[in-house]
Amino acid sequence: MKTIPTLLLGAAGLVLAHSASAALPSVVRIVGSNGDRVATTQAVLNLLSNATYTAGIAGSATASNFSNITGTYAGQTITVQTSFIGATGGIKAVAGAEEVRFLPLSATGTSNANPQTSSNPSQYLSAVPDFGVSTNFQSTSPYLGEYQGKNYIELKETLTGVVALNFLGSFGFPGDNFTTAQAQTLYKNGRVPLAFFTGNSTDRNKTVFAVGRNFDAGQRYGSLAEFGLGVNAVTKHYQPVIAGNGTVTSHALWPIETISGESSLFLGNSGYNSGANLVAALNTVLSSAAYTVGNPSATAGYYIGYLTPNDAATATNHGTRPAKLLKWNGITYSPAALKEGQYTAWVYTRVIYDPAIEGTDVGDFADAIANEVSTTTIALPSSGGIKLSELAVSRSAEGAPVTANYF
User: pLDDT 10s digit of each residue in the chain, 407 long?
Assistant: First the structure.
């Protein structure tokens, strides 16, 4: 019988001895991945008495990548601020004690400007997070040890569940399957003939373009690892210009940009800053000005991208231009297929923090979040995740072989 590594036991084994008497700072700040947003935010709402979503950029706290939530914890009134900028960006901020953007503490309402993209200093607060959540192992990122002249400490990681990666074609995509070989060619070159997917010679002059996430995103690292390209692969993502009717009027390789202080270096090597924003690209129809890029003889075009199940559901349930969920190497995604090892595109979720805060009030609160996620909120339908206790399989890193826990 196979022994599961201690790390994979996750948060269910945490002893929260100090939480009942915690005296937290009045503001606790959490940074991390978009894919952890729903489970983490709901855990905060569950743990705080009289929790109130006081400010955000979306109609509900669980839908908002930036939020301020006020409530009572262990008899103390606190405000929890969240900044879901991406899994790797979260690792960088926690391991390097680097500032990220949150909403101002004075913010109110649910229509605030996005702190990450705002150029108005009154619309964001820069601060070092207390702890984070991530869909990547720290060892997957470059932020462990010395990197570009700065030292990043080794973090404590507590696994809290798993989340699938889904692959989708944009509206009208004729294929139904996505393979490792197709993924490698598409994301290295940025575009491939549709005939790769259909086997029809009449589709040679129809083009499939790659869309994806920037390098703050755990979904990017997880997908590139699953493709066999490696997490540090240079991609060629397209950036569409989308009209109000869902038509892509033009597109080009994603421009070079700086994300969390790092340059993307090459055209196409950055991408969307959230899965929710990537959804829009998959609910489109490409105009001739877009699909003839790279092939003036092209007669049609489509996108392929990756999302977590919740964002994938949004994309496939679009009322007029639904995206198409693709099989991965011939396997249709389902929780059962993932749990038993048949569907392999998935990543672990985890809470991360500086080991120096373990046993402190902030560390205990982070452990309480991990415990609430692993036992309750990861499995909510709105979270789209799966409990560790339900998995019959495990893996040692993103894209690593999936092995049976019982065999």
Answer: 333 333 444 555 554 444 444 478 999 999 999 889 999 999 999 999 999 999 999 999 999 999 999 999 999 999 999 999 989 999 999 999 999 999 999 999 999 999 998 999 999 999 999 999 999 999 989 999 999 899 999 999 999 999 999 999 999 999 999 999 999 999 999 999 999 999 999 999 999 999 999 988 889 999 999 999 998 899 999 999 999 999 999 999 999 999 888 899 999 999 998 888 999 999 999 999 999 999 999 999 999 999 999 899 999 999 999 999 999 999 999 999 999 999 999 999 999 999 999 999 999 999 999 999 999 999 998 888 999 999 999 999 999 999 999 99
C-beta separation of 373 from 44 below 8 A:
no
CA dihedral 32, 35, 39, 43 (to 10 degrees): 10
Q: How far apart are CA 294 and CA 292, in angstroms?
A: 6
Taking a C-beta distance cutoff of 8 angstroms, is the pair 327, 381 a contact?
A: no
CA 190 to chain CA centroid, nearest Å: 21
Amino acid at 230: G
Question: Alpha helix (H) ranges present in 164-292?
Answer: 180-189, 195-198, 218-227, 275-282, 288-291
**Contacting residues for 27 by C-beta, under 8 A, at least 6 apart:** 78, 79, 80, 81, 105
Give residues with Cβ within 8 angstroms of 309, minimum separation 6.
163, 164, 166, 333, 384
Contacts of 226 (CB under 8 A, 6+ apart): 165, 183, 344, 345, 398, 399
Cα–Cα dist 56/131, whole Å: 20
CA separation for the pair 370, 360 (Å, rounded): 15
Tell me how far apart the alpha carbons of residues 277 and 24 are, in angstroms, rounded to a whole number: 34
Please give the CATH topology (third level) of the domain spanning 6-163+345-404.
D-Maltodextrin-Binding Protein; domain 2 (3.40.190)
pTM: 0.91
Check the CA dihedral 182-184-187-190 and report its sign. Answer: negative
